[in-house]
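Progress against Task 2.4 (sequence-to-structure conversion) is shown through the following example record, which the project officer requested during the mid-term review.
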Amino acid sequence: MNAFGPGGKKILMIVGDFVEDYEAMVPYQILLCAGHEVATVCPDKEAGETVATAIHDFEGDQTYSEKPGHRFAINTAFENLRPEDYDGLVIPGGRAPEYLRLNARVLEVVRHFADKQKPIAAICHGPQILVAAGVLADRQCSCYPAVSPEVAVAGGTYVAPSESMDSAHVDGNLVTAPAWPAHPAWMREFLKLL
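Structure tokens generated for the chain above:
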């Protein structure tokens, strides 16, 4: 039995500056509450540092609005990351995936989880990292609708969200969702895979 209770797993969460606030903090808290250990990492950041977050909301405009969020704590150094030490991976959305997908080590870590068929949860713009890692060919993936062309170009099949953006989609070890309104469904399915 590990220190996080019977059946507690070690989860890796990759974040970066301007990660979507709710898509980092809420899953982090849900996973802790369920008895799992969550390592939060960001390239070029050490344990004890933070990333800036952004709050995206749906207010009737043609796309989401963005407001300043909070500081989200990094608790594990990215430099010493060993993906084989973790049972699952969480990739929140926001603007962070846009630049995190340019980091070769991030992509290598994602490929480890895909190759080993470990549970992966990605939401909103998080699938941009899956696209860049080359792990969506012949896979079904939900995401924020603006990311759907990238999923298709990567050889994946885009799964459109419910009108209320609160649905999640499971394809094997992959759980994806369009945005933070899907947290209940997205985290419920990820917890089942763990």
